[in-house]
Automatic annotation (TrEMBL):
Coiled coil: none annotated. It comes from Phytophthora kernoviae. Residues 1-279 form the CDC20/Fizzy WD40 domain. It comes from the Eukaryota. This is CDC20/Fizzy WD40 domain-containing protein.
Length: 308
């Protein structure tokens, strides 16, 4: 799932990508896969453009023009499913795969692979570029978190998690602050400085951390959870204290994805229950940083849409 600056939320389900326009409340579909054993495994919007990158189970990387609903390119360099995608601010598309490789793609070039990052030993399941586009964070089923600013070796790697690292997000207001989340055997949210790879804070959530997202209007971090005690919830945390603000419930299975709206006021969550839920949880004024809302239930206006 990915929410573009154009206001369109892209949600992959099976062989189809649903494009939901929040302004018009209309949905259109693009069929990205046709083979019986193929389906969409990742999506990512290109910054400032109506172009969507789509990764598939059969290792195809597609680039779509959403205005024309036309596939622009089909790139095949991975050897297994592409489970993670991330665009940099300079329009480099990073793709992570079950083949344990990260490819850096320049989709404008005929020879589009401009870098191969080969350090992980298992599937690359999380990717996130820093806001300035200079550092790429990667997480893997090998339990490693890596920070890259070179196409040869990671600047630093850490086994601070005891399970797969799928959830990664950079702070929009502290340029060197990265949050990561561990899988079911770990259940921790960790905060890192990308300057030196130092661990700043670790919080035990008691549950699998499937996704993370920073609010860009409040000093809050949002986490989505799967198995164990906090199962199927979305949780808000105040930064830097990492005090739990509230739990948002409604999903009946693991919450797999999170996305913050372009205006920063709303959030979408997608679950394994095949529901998409919208949460109006963030105030519009950045002055709330000075006096954060304690998370009273009246603050939240939940409405949901179901895609099956």
């Amino acid at each position: 799932m990915a929410w573009g600056t154009n206001g369109i939320l892209a949600i992959a389900l099976g062989q189809v990508v649903f494009l939901y326009c929040t302004a018009t409340n209309k949905t259109q579909e693009i069929r990205a896969c046709f083979e019986p054993n193929n389906y969409v495994t990742s999506v990512a919007w290109r910054s400032g453009a109506n172009q969507l990158a789509v990764g598939t189970f059969q290792a195809e990387l597609q680039l779509w023009d959403i205005d024309r609903c036309a596939k622009l390119r089909s790139l095949r360099s991975h050897r297994a499913r592409i489970g993670s995608l991330a665009w940099s601010s300079s329009n480099t598309l990073a793709s992570g795969s079950l083949d344990a490789k990260i490819l850096l793609n320049d989709v404008r070039a005929s020879r589009y692979v401009v870098g191969v990052l080969a350090h992980h030993t298992e599937e690359v399941c999380g990717l996130a570029w820093s806001p300035d586009g200079n550092t790429l964070a990667s997480g893997s089923n090998d339990n490693q978190l890596c920070l890259w600013n070179s196409v040869t070796m990671p600047r630093c790697s850490n086994r601070g998690h005891g399970a797969a690292v799928r959830a990664l997000t950079w702070s929009p207001w502290e340029r060197h602050l990265l949050a990561s989340g561990g899988g079911a055997a770990d259940g921790a949210i960790k905060l890192w400085s990308s300057l030196n790879g130092q661990l700043l804070r670790s919080v035990a959530t008691g549950s699998q951390v499937c996704a993370l997202a920073w609010s860009n209007t409040t000093r809050e971090l949002v986490s989505a959870h799967g198995h164990h005690s906090a199962a199927n919830t979305v949780t808000l945390w105040e930064y830097p204290s990492m005090t739990r603000v509230c739990d948002l419930t409604g999903h009946t299975a693991r919450v797999l994805h999170l996305a913050i709206s372009p205006n920063g006021m709303s959030m979408a969550s997608a679950g394994a229950d095949e529901t998409l839920r919208f949460w109006d949880v963030f105030p519009s004024s950045r002055s709330s940083w000075m006096s954060p809302n304690p998370g009273k239930s009246g603050r939240f206006d939940l409405h949901s849409a179901v895609i099956r």
